[in-house]
Design goal:
- InterPro entries: ConA-like_dom_sf, DUF1349, UCP022704.
- This is DUF1349 domain-containing protein.
- The chain is mostly beta strands.
- It has a single domain, classed as Sandwich (Jelly Rolls), CATH 2.60.120.200.
- The protein contains no helices and 16 strands.
Length: about 200
Amino acid sequence: MLAALESATWLNPPPAWSLTAAALTVETGDRTDFWRDTLYGFRRDSGHALLLPVEGDFTAHLRFDGDYAALYDQAGLMLRRDGAHWIKAGIEQSDGVANLSVVVTREASDWSTLALGPSPGPQRLRLTRLGGAVVIQARNAANRWQLLRVAPFPEGPAQVGPMACSPERGGFRARFTEFTLGPAVSQALHDESPASPS
């Protein structure tokens, strides 16, 4: 379920990557990252993202895994308007555990996390854009789409797709085995029915 990515384009191509019918595999460059200003006082826009253009309402679904080891190793999904307006959601290694992590950047970045443990295994994310709002959900152990974040995001043209980076090293490997892009899902924000594949 990766056919859509055949027409995607790289923001900052990684030093090594491959796309087959089974998986997109990415090996990150040295000290790559997405962050803007808050707390650390720097701007980094060097992470890797394979992006498709989007307009209006949509839902993007991603299944992914990674060899998380070093501080801030991360993989997941990016929605991007430009260098000052973007969202990244996925797994990020911090404090010795893998965290479900969301960074929302509107001129400056913020960061929210939910600790999963040292070995999270493959994860599923769902990002839905509805007008000027974005809903980010993760498929939890109870097979429900758990709400991670509701955030404002500018309407108009943007890009979405898998992302990976490694702020403290190079050579982090991430694998993306499903990516779909389609109409916005109609499920309720706090839906408790079993999660569908997308």
